[in-house]
# Entry
Amino acid sequence: MSPLPFVPLIACLSLTISTLAQDEPKDLTQVLQSNKNLSEFTTLLTSYGDIYANLSFQSDVTILAPNNDAFNKIPYSSLGPAFEANQSQIVRSILQYHILPGLHPASRYNGSFSFDKTWLQNTSYTNVTGGQVVGGVQQAGNVNVYTSGLGTRSTLITPDLRFTGGIIHVIDNFLIPPQNFIQTVPQFNLTAAGGAIENTSLADYANSRQDLTFFVPQNAAFQALGETLQSMPSSQLQRILNYHIVNGSTVGYSANLPNGTILRTRSGQNLTITFASNSLFVNQARVLQQDLLLSNGVMHVIDNFLDPDAPSVTANPEVQTAPPLIRGTSLSENVVPFTSFLPTGVTSFDTMSATPTSTFGASDIGKGTSAFSRSTTSRKASSTSNSKENSGGVTVELQQAAMAMTSGFLGVLCWIIGFL
# Structure
């Protein structure tokens, strides 16, 4: 029998093998280079060779990658001074904060917040057991949002870009590593609490103790008792403030506070968590804002003071704001107590603890320069090859599905040719 009939079969098998080879997952470098909207992130990541090499050998990791537009926003954010001053260690911590151990696909998130550990574990920038966390939630319209320090929100733009070591999610804003208590409270108009913590010599503890949970009364609660609070002995005010701090073995993110949770405070008395009428309460106080991340834990804003002399009081969901348990006299309207005790210059990312050594600064942002010895031309060429698919938001899953269909068709075709 002539071998010629087998020639089409051999060619078909070769085509099938080639197609299946194309279906193999790409490595990290290939995926980054095939997404032109990540060229600035690629430049930043590859400038930290140890992090980049470590990622290349991971088997299960999730990268939250800011797109090029996010880099253009850096000079106008609290991260600007760190990049402008070339603070390489701070920039390193920022980069580590965008890397999550384990696979966290977009479909994992729902309407309840989850808090996932990151690679940021350097104690110069975080003091949370197991590494600093980032919040994730799915909001209306199936929009995934990540929350980070200073209340920063980053929206997921392109999900689930798969590579051999895990997945990449493209986001529209940088995550900001959480700051300490005193640096964070002004961002949420909690200046009275910050000033009171300073005035009672609790600032060092509040800023540095590991795994703290704060229940912080809003400024209006301080104003309602302002004259009384300002006139009481420092030790008495400190006792009240300590009743608002939980120094447990784990951080009290809302996801860790089911109905009926009992928390032991620094003052020694307990707090009781209640979930009722779709609201979260701690004792009688309503939680107004949850899960504001701190470098050493989390804080929740509450509408009223907690009273260490009334630890058994319970929530009344029928009342919008319960009357103060601590009796006292208010200050005149618009006068917020203790604010003058806050130090100045606490509203931007702390850039004082690292030595400027990096060559990456704000002058490189958004220019696609070769500041990290990478060729702009080669980056553009690699980005252009799949620009239509990736810039249009088509996920790798769809590409792989198409490959699978093609492979199946070629397999059937080969069988027919072989039969003939």
About this structure: The chain has 16 helices and 14 strands.
